[in-house]
Amino acid sequence: MTKVVVIMSGKGGVGKTTVSTNLGTSLSVFGRNVIALDSNFASPHLGLHLGASYVPITLHNVMKGVNHISEATYLHPCSLKIVPASVSYEELKSIDISQISQVIEDLKGYSEIILIDTPAGLSKEMKYVLSATDYSIIVTTPDIPAITEALKSIKFCNDHNVEILGIIVNKVRDEDFEMNKDNIENFLEKPVLGMIPHDHKFRESISLKNPFVHIYPEREATKEYKRIAAHLIGQEYVGKKKQDNKFKQFVEGIGLKIKFIPDTKFKK
Predict the structure, then answer these.
(1) Whose CA is closest to 138, among 59, 23, 47?
(2) Which has the closest alpha carbon to 194: 163, 162, 230?
(3) Contact (CB, 8 A) for 49 and 21
(4) Which residues pair with 115 in a beta bridge?
(5) Which of 8, 175, 186, 196 is deepest in the core (most CB within 10 A)?
(6) Could you give the CA distance from residue 101 to residue 134 in angstroms, rounded to a whole number?
(7) Phi, psi of 79, deg, nearest 5
(8) How would you write the pLDDT of the chain (268 residues) with one tens digit per residue?
(9) Among 9, 19, 20, 16, which Cα is nearest to 188's?
């Protein structure tokens, strides 16, 4: 049975798309079949992070009834499947956002896990997304404004009967003014799944059109993502010994251009 998990936050800029791509990739490392879908219609960034700025069929085509959802699903070399939304402003004006719940329903059965990348805040489209969602993960940074907005997201999920798996705290710098894990858990009354350390190479990974965990396997943030993924599926993550990453050196040397192809291997 497919599990649908919405990645959400009450505040913009906390890194939901980064969490969606890297958590999805980490789950695929453990052999899970994962699809990440971009439901941020106004500012879709999932495709931009992974080199799918322009693809022939997007989620918008599906929302308009022109294509089936399987035709808008693309396979990245890291084994993560994605459903990108169109970056076109004109496309945004021509869709009925209420259709997103049916699109998510139609996608069920094609993978074990569907991660839904969402817009920030508690917008109208979030109600439609949550209506087709089983679980949520709240993303925040360790500062008071973001955590305050995370509390609103938790209450929003409670109002829509969506189970909250926990909190991912992103961009952690270990500075004195940041809230620590215990304080965050006490304030939000939800478990912190992981604390992702700030790393300047996250920006590099976007320019390389690859998930951070895929090309920087020895970084501490990668290990934390894999710990979170292992926890969510009930496995134990044991980090490997540090070794040379020739693939990383290769992509840093020449740059990596990703070619997306529709995934034709779907079977219910």
Answers:
(1) 23
(2) 230
(3) yes
(4) 5, 36
(5) 8
(6) 12
(7) 85, 0
(8) 899 999 999 998 999 999 999 999 999 999 999 999 999 888 899 999 998 888 899 999 999 999 999 999 999 999 999 999 998 877 777 788 889 999 999 999 999 999 999 988 887 789 999 999 999 999 999 999 999 999 999 999 999 999 999 999 999 999 998 999 999 999 999 999 999 999 999 999 999 999 999 999 999 999 999 999 999 999 888 776 444 444 444 444 434 344 444 554 433 3
(9) 9
Q: What is the CATH number assigned to the segment(s) 3-262?
A: 3.40.50.300
Please give the distance of CA 177 from its chain centroid, rounded to a whole number: 27
DSSP 35: E
Please name the amino acid found at residue 33. Answer: N
Strand 135-140 with 3-8, pairing? parallel
Rounded-to-integer distance, Cα 70 and Cα 60, Å: 13
Single-letter amino acid code for the residue at 108: K
* Residue 129 token pair: 């997304």
155 backbone dihedrals φ, ψ, rounded to 5° = -65, -35
Count other C-beta atoms under 10 Å from residue 22's C-beta: 30
Taking only Cα atoms into account, the Rg of the chain, rounded to an integer number of angstroms, comes to 18
Say what the alpha-carbon torsion angle 213, 218, 220, 222 is, to the nearest 10 degrees.
20
Instruction: Name residue 144's amino acid.
Output: I
